[in-house]
From TrEMBL:
A Pfam entry, by short name: DUF4283
Domain called DUF4283: residue spans: 84-124
The protein, known as: DUF4283 domain-containing protein
Upper classification of the organism: Eukaryota, Viridiplantae, Streptophyta, Embryophyta, Tracheophyta
Source superkingdom: Eukaryota
Native organism: Gossypium aridum (American cotton)
Amino acid sequence: MVVDFDQQPIMSFKDKLLGGGVAFSGENLEGSFEKNKSDFELMEIDVNMSMVNGIPAIAFSDRIKDILFKEMELTVILKLLGRNISYNFHDIDDYNKVLIQGPWIIFGQYLTVQPWTKSFNPAQPYPSVVMAWIRLSSLP
């Protein structure tokens, strides 16, 4: 009987669900999570809590905003049937394919896709100009 003592990478359901990488069998997943969590430290100056008209408000520092924006780098906003849907890609090739290829049609409705930006406004119509090729079958 041959026994392979090399640890093979195993993707656990938890890792896949949380968007993590490959874990090695026998590795303490909680320990690796704690190690990544310790890389980030939230300081008291990063959060400003206040009350605005009796409603609690939380303002974050520019450092925290930059961290959050970095996480949203590969996010696109989809508008389908009048509803906004956001999706965060993990692969730059998939992100570019969705933005560049198209137009996308789902259930006979055009799906508009736009990259997420800091100044994203869901009330703003996007895109403002669409180039379309229309074929009229009864014309020569």
